[in-house]
Amino acid sequence: MELRLYDTLSREKRAFVPLDAKNVRMYVCGPTVYDFAHIGNARPVIVFDVLFRLLRHTFGEAHVKYVRNITDVDDKINDRAARDFPGLPLNEAIRKVTEETGRQFHADVGALRCLRPSVEPRATEHIAEMREIIERLVKGGFAYVAEDHVLFSPQAMNAANSSLPRYGALSNRSLDEMVAGARVDVAPYKKGNTDFVLWKPSKPGEPSWPSPAGIEAEGRPGWHIECSAMAWKHLGEHFDIHGGGIDLVFPHHENEVAQTCCAFHRERMANYWMHNGFLQVESEKMSKSLGNFITIHELLKDWPGEVLRLNMLKTHYRSPIDWTMKSLEESAKTLDDWYRVAADVEPGKPAASVVEPLLDDLNTPLAIAALHGLRGGDVSALAGSLRLLGFLSESAAQWEGRKQQASGVDAKEVERLIAERTAARSRKDFGESDRIRDLLAAMGVAIKDSKEGTTWEIAR
Ligand code: AMP
Ligand code: ZN
């Protein structure tokens, strides 16, 4: 079966044919490193990790290149640095913020069992490439200099008589309507009200670099140009897949396409544009003001990363997710069970019943249903399939041990009480055996009797 992916630009599911099967190339917009990542940010990271693993499975590990950037120049970073380290020079404070946040991000997504991308470029290390693209855009008549800014003109792009894509095609918008509907208080240096910033002057003390296009004052890049530059440097002018959350389609990705295609006279930037749906919490939009803003870091204190990962993958990546406590509890139970039956089994080939739904535009809910189907049958295929999806990174004993540690339960004491209870039951002293069961329950331990004996787990 072939891989099929839904492409936001053509608005259809299409067979995935890489430009070069020996070098499949994917770019995903990464985090802006100024604060802990929240559980919504984890969604694209997990979704595209599954795609990365599936591409490696399909084309071979050595033949897939996955680039996810780190945005380390941004107003939000500057504001946070000034707030958190008021005594330090701004540039030093910024370095502290971006380094600490970057480290935290890697710890978080590592716990979610996401593989490191092949390259994680930082925006501040690609200023030369940004300048080069901007120079090309100015020379080509797509961008202009005004008051030490460089601005891109979507109208110039759509007026160009060439095989460029139409500005607005990706987000399915008409430029005329955008022009008509634009705000009236547009910055005075803009010629057109939909023009966007490629480069801007830095305020005193802010990070700054020599400017392109003959501008004397030093400046810094706009956000959109960063991704065009990093994708170009690491994947070339035209590559296979570009991904991110649905909120990035406009303006970020529309502007990336515009910059890259106009700079390199290309019809396309990426052949497949993929966007994950949004995540909300207990049926509400996640926001600081509603008090339901959850960081990955906080969640990891209560749940193993694989539980968060499974919980994310139970919903198809293009649908919205409602993140609930109830669903987390179910995901935890499912993983406990999979660990018990499959973690210590020699993994076999991933089952076709799991791989096929994945090949159909990453249908993870169907793949998970197939995993449940393997549970009572081919457990070695279950083990192999779970590993393909990034699960079972620990042994069954490690999994149990960590859970007990997290709950503060003394495993030896639990085993001793269970032995006492078994003895009580065999002498038919049910009063005593019930007393011990209640005692264990009060310690947060649930027990289960079966023909093979009594097993226990931490009750949630
Ligand atoms: P940001 O740091 O806000 O640029 O976001 C980083 C990535 O997380 C982008 O791909 C966003 O589209 C994605 N993202 C942010 N919030 C959510 C959310 N609530 N649900 C799903 N994806 C999100
Ligand atoms: Zn981007």
TrEMBL record:
Renumbered to this chain, motif 'HIGH' region spans 31-41
Entry's Gene Ontology BP terms: cysteinyl-tRNA aminoacylation
Subcellular localization: Cytoplasm
Tell whether Nucleotide-binding is among the UniProt keywords. Answer: yes
Instruction: Please report the stretch or stretches of sequence annotated as the Cysteinyl-tRNA ligase anticodon binding domain.
Output: 412-456
Q: Where does ATP bind?
A: 288
Q: Which residue intervals define the domain tRNA synthetases class I catalytic in the entry?
A: 16-331
Into which family does the record put it? Belongs to the class-I aminoacyl-tRNA synthetase family.
Any idea what this protein is called? Cysteine--tRNA ligase
Q: Which organism is it from?
A: Bradyrhizobium frederickii
